[in-house]
Amino acid sequence: MKHIARKRFGQHFLTDGGIIDAIVDAISPQPGQAMVEIGPGLAALTQPLVERLGHLTVIELDRDLAVRLREHPHLSVVESDVLKVDFGALATHMLASSEAAASPKIRVVGNLPYNISTPILFHLLAQVDVIEDQHFMLQKEVIDRMVAKPASSDYSRLSVMLQWRYEMANVLFVPPESFDPPPRVDSAVVRMVPLATPPVVNVKTLETLVQVAFSQRRKILRNTLGKWLDEKGFAGQFDLQRRAEEVPVAEFVALAQAV
Q1: Is the model more confident about 200 or about 100?
Q2: Which domains are assigned to the chain?
């Protein structure tokens, strides 16, 4: 029985064999690696991944799809909203049950639902210590913001909050016709590798600081971040005669550390 894509789950199923092969090659799964796939759907990526890995854990919210996936002998199915999954606990369980685990961390992949992609990225950011790398298909516009450099129109809060912790690259363009049903946007695949020695910073402070800075991105920081820093009693040096989009990630991190 054909599964009808459900709009409430943001389902768009990958059908292009050439694109699927290119994504799997970019991920480069190796036998014995502990890998989690978010939103496997109709298993377009799942099958070639599990063939290379030997075993794969998948997270699927759609009950009907989860039932189908459980029939596969080499899949462990977590039927859940990914935003409720404790990746630390999942990693511990996966690595304990895998005698051939090639790394003390898990790899995470997936075609993320575009309507909740940003919350998923921040959910994983909070649990990044157990993750070796991430490969995600997302709306190209979102990936453009993730990898954007300062002084560009795409540079944003998302750029700063991910770049302080990950090395990222846009590795593959995916056109709408690669899906059924086709989304109304272009897609792409991003590679996210957690930095081996990230700067030590209070994430909540950085998050609030960056949010305030980008709250009115066309205004110079004296009018937004300046007031916030005054309230914090900050007496250090920081150039507030710039817009938020002109400040490099390292400077935002250094400011959060100083505050």
Answers
A1: 200
A2: 7-194 (3.40.50.150), 203-258 (1.10.8.100)
